[in-house]
Amino acid sequence: xxxxxxxxxxxxxxxxxxxxRMMNKGYIPIGLLVTVKKGETGSWTxxxxxxxxxxxxxxxxxxLFLVECEMNEYEHKFTETLLKAKExxxxxxxxxxxxxxxxxxxxxxxxxxxxxxxxxxxxxxxREKLVNEFIDNGFSTVIKKVNLTQLPSDFLGKVLTREIVGxxxxxxxxxxxxxxxxxxxxxxxxxxxEKVDFKVNKIVIDGDYGNLDISI
Length: 216
Fold this sequence. Notes:
The chain is built from six helices and nine strands.
């Protein structure tokens, strides 16, 4: 019998690729766990609006587990949601992390608290090969957020292609953005029922970060 899992989901390329791989292996996702800043409308890190996350959930046909929290309660709320998923049959939580040891430890600690397995299907694979695998499998994603100390705001809104990955490398940045150079929002691909359409409102500059403000 295929194992059921909950996906720690950012809406970006790495978690989407991890989800895709697990589904291809016959694992069954019971939910997408997405953390959202308490009192705000956007998700942590990627700043994706709740309405768009709901559209992604509908297109993937996987329920959304929204976790609204402050930073000081982030860990507790995450574990609490894992426990709820466990009650619904989840035997593991899947993460899209690649090779940052502290991130892996955090994932494993939360799963240990909930007494479920932590699975990291992309772990220690070549970063550039992973982003190319994502692109080559037909996924479509836009660059949603950039660290302006490493990438210019011109990259915001660009669809991630092999050519764009090459431009990112030319600027001496990690092609996968694993060090926080950029974050993405996946809008289409082989596991999507339909493309998630959005409109661009404006570019927001907040300190060292540029964010593409998008909505339905």
